[in-house]
Structures are given as C-alpha cells and as structure tokens.
Amino acid sequence: MEYLVCRLLVLVFAASSGLVYKSYDALLIGGNLSIQKLIDQNIENEVEKFDVNTENCKMPQLRVMSLRQRPRAPEICTAKHPRLIVSKWNPQRQQYQLKIQQEVAAQMSGEEKPIVECSYRVIDHGRLRQPAMFRDEHLVPKHVQGMRLQCALRSNRSYAMHARHVSEDLSFVQPKEELPRLSNRQPSVLLLGIDSMSRGNLRLVLPNVSHFLAGRQWHEMRGFNTVGDNKLMDCPDRLSFVLQDFKLSGYVTAMSEDRPEKGMCQRHSVDHYLRPLAMPKLRRCLRKRRGMEQTLDYCAQLIERYVRGSQPFFGFFWIHAEASQPDELLFDYLNRFEVLGLYEEAIVVLFSDNGMRFGNLIKFRDDQLEERQPMLFVTLPKWFRQRNPGFSRALQLNRHRLSSPYDLKMTLKHVASLHVYPEFPRSCSRCQSLFYALPKNRSCYDAGIRPHWCTCEAYRTLPLSDNIQTMSHFVIQRINQYLSDLSLLNRCSKLRLSGIRGAQRKERSPQDEPNMIFYRLQLEALPNKLVFEATVSFNELTQLMDTDIWEISRKSSIDLAASCIGHQKASVFCVCHNRITYN
C-alpha cells in the first residue's frame, strides 16, 4: 500500500526565546524510502567531481539531478505564434517595409480573404504617439525605432462587431549613416545574457541549447563563480559595463532587455536601444514569450544590418528563460544567427549573472552551488583565432580555473582596446582578461569573490545551538541597522527572527586569517516569512562576530513587498508597512 507523499516538519522550541528551529526531513515514498535518501545514496556511490581542483580552490561540480521536486505546473501557451505583420528590409530603399501576411490573416479570421485594416502608433521614449493607418508594403520612416500595430480582421466592413482585433509590437534597428571606418579589421561582440541560469541547470532546462554550445569552438568557463546577487547586472555596474569603451573605440552599440516591467535601467547613450512595452492584455506566459522574441528579433536585426559591413558592433541583450518552450525558441535563434554569419565575424558570449536564487532548485543538496555557479561560454571567429592564437589557448586553459564576472568585464575591455593597445594590461588588482592564462592556484580572495559567494571551499553542517541562535539574531539586527541608516524604517517594517533553517561552518583553508571562523546561516524572519542566507565571521581570540550587508542574500522570492522604496539593495530586506501579508 502506498502512502501519501508528505513533508515532515520538525519544530524544536528554544525555551529562552520561543525561537523556532526548523529541520526539514525528506519526502517519504511508500513510508520507507525517501527521495533525499535516494539522492544521498546516489551521491555517496559517485566519485565527487570538481570543476576546479587546485590547492586553493576545490569547486564541486553542480550535479544535474534526475530526481527533483515536481515544479509548479507551467502555464500552457501555444509554442509558436504566427505574426500577422512582419517587417522586411528593402535593400534598394534602405528601409524597413511592413508586410501583411494574408495566409495568417485567413487562419486567424477563418475567412478565405478577410478584410484587414491596420494602423500603427510610433513608440517614442516609452510613449505611444497618435495612430496612423497603413497598407501592405508600407515603408517605415527611417527615424522610427518601434511601433505598436493594431489590426482589425473582418469578413464584411458593415459588421464591425464581428471583427477580430490583433495587437503586435515591432522594433527596428535603423542603421547609422556616415560612420567612421576603423583602420583595421576588428571583431564585433555580442553578449547574450540569460537571467538566473546556472551551468548545471542549463543542461536540464535548455538541453538543445546545451548541445549547440558543445561544439562550434565554444569555450565553457567551468570555474565561473558569481560575485553577488545580480552584481553583474545592477544599474551602476551595467552603466559602465564597457559600453562606453566600445563606443569610444568606434563600435556601433546596442542594448535590449525583455522584461519592461522590471525596468532595470533607463536608456543609456547607445546607438540602438530596445525596451519593449508591456502588453497587459496578453496572458502572462505569452507576455514572457513575446518579450523574449522581441529581444532576440532585435538582436537578429542588429546582426543583419552590421555583421557583414565595415563597422563592428557591440550588442548587449538580456533575456529571461521563463517563456513557453524557451529551449526551442533560443535554439532556433542561435541557429538563425549562424545563418546570418554571426559566428564568422563576431566574438559571442553567452552568460548569466547567477543561478536560480528562489524556487524548487534551491531546496536541494546543491542549492548553494546552484545559486553561485552561473554559466559562461565564449566563441571566437576563425579569422580572429588565426590572428591571435594565444587567445584561444588561454581560453582552453582557463576552462577549469577560477574566474569571475570581473574577469569577463576585463576581457571585454581587452577587446575594446585591441586596435589601440594590442598588448593589453594582463590584470587589475582582482581581475584579469580571459585571453591570458589565469593563475592556476587562484583563490576566491585573489579573484575578488567574497566568502559568502565562494564555492571553492567546503562547509560542514552544524547542529543548531545557542551560539547559532546568537549569530542569527545578530544578522537580523544588522539588517535593521542598515535600514535605519538609510532612514527607511518609516516605510519598511523592522524585521525579527522567527526561525533558523540550518547552519554550516567553513572548513579552514590556508587563506583564512588566524583565529577566524566563517559560518553560513539560513534564517527566517517576520513579517512575510522572509528567508535569508548570511555569512558571519567569528574571531575566536576576541570573541567578536561580524557580517557585511553584502554577505546577506535573499532566498525567498522578492515580490511587490518592497514597492514603497527604490533602493536596490535595501529592497532585499524591506517589507513595506502596507504590504504585510503574514506577521
């Protein structure tokens, strides 16, 4: 007889404070065997593998588990959505044209020859201008960079109530004129970022993309370690993320993101910028897919306009792989980029800023690796490899050496300066171009990676104790002090510790200061049952503990609870007084 699958929750109350220690047992199957035991047994029988295995860094390989919790049922969307209106480039007129696809109109309306009436509204700095009617083969004015299309499909003009209405957005990479030519051939550069995608989860969620990246001279940096929560992608870093370096070097620059509701940054001084408008009338899953398609379409347009020309481009595109069937969609575009000649002319970087920080994946044994091991793939065009053979050798050598987003940034700066400084400086204090061999015995400290984010060093689980409870209270006190220093407690609720999920202690390493011990804690706080992970240092000699606010990360989903403030880091800790749902 099979028993119901359930989760055992063990509550241990500390008499002194009423604090709840929470210990999560495994999922029971048939009353005898658990998923966690199966996983643990499988791991014990498997030789532990390392992506980096040096004296100063032993980075475990993130396992792709075959046994996982059942994820939330995905929203069902049609895999492909035929478009009623498409844009085509007219090489004679050097303009885009709008094409009404009659076969799609017939499919949508159920009529053999429906009447199609369309208008468009120019998108200007996020605002919609007055509508203008257009017909098939309409030439798009050269100054228009985006538009929202509205079409009505009907079988008879007199029956307007029977019309079917279609709304779509189009964006255009309008080529720049009279650009100065560079003195010698330089590679274009395309950065394609995927939000919250670890290199282990890539193989599970995007298997076709993973297979595509297994060939074509792609170099995977297996030692790529994050440096913090979205640290690579927050506004201050991204504003200076070498865009200006490439612009000053004569490159055409472009940028786009697929989540307009996030509004990560405002428009920068780039030549081509796309920020799709929200389409609230679409179902949530369709909005995600349309946003991803628009960004990748815009990327394809950039390639079409510039990749075969004399002017190199630098493109930075950011997507979220949350759309319906993202693997199929991204795989199709990567192959389309190949047809357009991208990989023959450009350095292409496919990367992420971190792994998944919330949801089912972080509940497993390797959750700390999942969050901290993003992906990084780099490919160089053949002519560039032949001109710089040492760069390919260095990338191959660096595959299993510790690297960070700081190294990626330095590598891009290296590319931007090639036509001015062929012998680029090999390193800064905490970063180095990946076109040079990284130090074999590099540590997280050498790479500028804080202890909280480092996956080079082992931690062992500790039983919950009074000392752990004291440290946990200290972390919550540190958060509240941070909010107070920013004068935000008049808008944000003061947090209080409600539970401790677990504690770990870092094994000592040669790089540690004498008498210094590092602890990693998972805490719950009220209101709204927030979950945090914090790294606390403890000096055995002075008996003092400390934690940096950047060593505290959020493990529960960040929703609208912090909508009353605009501070990016503080939003991780803020629960607005009017957003309290559980206290």
Determine the structural class based on helices, strands and strand pairing.
alpha+beta
Q: Helix content range of the residues, please? A: 10-25%
Principal-axes shape call: globular
**How many helices in DSSP terms?**
14
Mean residue pLDDT: 82
**CATH topology annotation of the largest domain:** Alkaline Phosphatase, subunit A
Q: What's the total number of strands?
A: 26
Strand content: 25-35%
Rg result: 26 Å
Largest sheet: 9 strands, mixed
CATH architecture of the largest domain: 3-Layer(aba) Sandwich
CATH class of the largest domain, named Alpha Beta
Uncertain ranges: 1-18, 20-47, 66-74
Span between termini: 40 Å
Number of domains: 2
InterPro entries: Alkaline_phosphatase_core_sf, DUF229
Pfam families: DUF229 (PF02995)
Plain-language structure description:
InterPro entries: Alkaline_phosphatase_core_sf, DUF229. One of its GO terms (cellular component) is extracellular space. The chain has 583 residues and is an alpha+beta fold. Helix 4 runs parallel beside helix 8 and helix 7 runs parallel beside helix 8. The radius of gyration is 26 Å and the shape is globular.
Summarize the structure in short.
The protein is an alpha+beta fold and 583 residues long.
Q: Which terms would index this structure?
A:
583 residues, alpha+beta, Alkaline Phosphatase, subunit A, Nuclear Transport Factor 2, Chain: A, seven-stranded mixed sheet, 26% strand, disordered N terminus
Break the fold down into its secondary structure elements and pairings.
Layout: E1 7-13, E2 20-29, E3 33-34, H1 35-44, E4 50-53, E5 58-60, E6 85-90, E7 95-100, H2 102-109, E8 115-124, E9 127-128, E10 132-134, E11 138-139, E12 146-154, E13 164-171, E14 188-194, H3 199-205, H4 207-213, E15 218-220, H5 235-239, H6 243-248, E16 252-257, E17 272-274, H7 284-306, E18 313-319, H8 326-339, H9 342-345, E19 346-351, H10 367-372, E20 376-379, H11 382-387, H12 389-397, H13 405-416, E21 459-461, H14 466-485, E22 496-506, E23 516-526, E24 530-539, E25 544-546, E26 552-554
Parallel strand pairs: 2-22, 14-18, 14-19, 16-17, 16-18
Antiparallel strand pairs: 1-2, 2-3, 4-5, 6-7, 7-11, 8-9, 8-10, 8-12, 12-13, 15-20, 19-20, 21-22, 22-23, 23-24, 24-25, 24-26
